[in-house]
Specification:
Strand order of the largest sheet: 1-2
Radius of gyration: 28 Å
Helix content: over 70%
Number of helices: 17
Largest sheet: 2 strands, parallel
Shape: elongated
């Protein structure tokens, strides 16, 4: 029953963790590859869910603090005692095959088997996605198991006054064996799956064009950095015009001097290219975008202050987000004659020299 509690808890908490992880994940993918590979998303998020599930299996169910008291023998340092425990505690009779199946359903067997199966996916992930060799798989699986055992030994990092589960050296051995088993099993599946290098190459190839989601990410990251720098400068200089100066520097001077790249553009490998009159079009673009997406809706809101307008505003932004997510060019891009260009290829060529 405790297994189901742990899995249920992991499924409940996973959306929260996934949400917190999503923004750093998107930024990292656009920085490194210029795109987000769907298969990579499945691998990474399934790995997060797996690690959460295993962790909750280790710590749950949590007892009440007052119920945890000191007990002798909470640390077991003699290896391979699980073998003698199984032979002594199970109904298995070697000479009687009819007892084999029944022994598999007894705790002295399925507890050991489950401890092994618990780290099988870890070994598979290490070999397939993280490209770990056999020795590294053994090492990392052992360290993961050691982390779990220390979590139990310290009473969940000293939240509890005493350990509420055993520290067992056999668990280290069994968990590590599970990672080795997973490493071996993954060898059977690799021929049917794209390799990590193939995923990376496909991501870089796709990243040579700027998707709508990448444009949205660029806009939001630019806004975040601009507000961060502005607030920081205001706290230092206390000038009324600091915001305007930072705005002109960030959105006009920096892109003009650095080949159409803002700070966020440099990180996400995106630059702006204009057909002609770069400075004038750069100025017109940024003032138009701020007026179009911020000041004009704000002005209308001050005039109406109605729920219907809020609904209209939500539809307004939703429509533009959908257009971008379909990787379509916005009408004002045609008017301003601006093109979003990916520099991921330039970065890769430079780094390979």
């Amino acid at each position: 029953m405790s297994y189901f509690i742990s899995i249920k808890t992991a499924l409940i908490v996973f959306p929260i963790i996934a949400l917190l992880f999503t923004i750093p994940f998107i930024l990292h993918q656009y920085h490194k590859y210029g795109s987000i590979h769907k298969f990579r998303v499945c691998i990474i998020y399934s790995f997060i869910l797996y690690m959460m599930t295993v962790y909750f299996l280790v710590i749950l169910p949590l007892p009440k603090i007052e119920d945890v008291v000191y007990q002798e023998g909470m640390i077991r340092l003699v290896p391979f005692t699980f073998i003698s425990d199984f032979l002594r505690g199970s109904s298995l009779v070697i000479t009687n095959p009819s007892t084999y199946f029944g022994a598999l359903k007894e705790p002295c067997f399925y507890t050991v088997a489950f401890n092994m199966l618990m780290t099988v996916p870890f070994g598979m992930y290490l070999r397939y996605y993280f490209k770990c060799n056999f020795k590294k798989t053994i090492l990392y699986t052992f360290l993961l198991s050691l982390f779990f055992e220390l979590t139990q030994l310290t009473g969940l990092y000293y939240i509890y006054p005493y350990p509420y589960r055993f520290f067992d050296v056999d668990d280290l051995l069994i968990n590590t064996l599970g990672g080795i088993l997973g490493y071996g099993l993954m060898g059977l599946f690799t021929r049917f799956l794209p390799s990590r290098d193939e995923i990376d190459n496909a991501s870089i190839e796709k990243g040579k064009t700027v998707s709508g989601l990448r444009r949205i990410t660029l806009f939001c990251l630019d806004m975040f950095l601009f507000l961060l720098i502005t607030n920081l400068m205001k706290s230092i200089f206390h000038g009324k015009q600091i915001g305007i100066i930072i705005f002109l520097l960030y959105y006009i001077a920096i892109p003009y001097l650095f080949s159409g790249k803002t700070l966020a553009g440099s990180f996400l490998n995106v630059k702006l290219e204009f057909e002609n009159n770069k400075l004038l079009r750069l100025i017109f673009r940024i003032f138009f975008l701020f007026f179009y997406y911020f000041y004009f809706p704000l002005f209308l809101w001050m005039l109406s202050r109605s729920i219907l307008f809020l609904l209209f505003l939500c539809l307004f932004y939703f429509y533009h987000i959908v257009i971008l997510l379909k990787n379509k060019k916005m009408y004002y891009d045609y008017v301003i004659k601006v093109t979003y260009v990916s520099t991921i290829q330039e970065r890769k060529i430079t780094s390979s020299k």
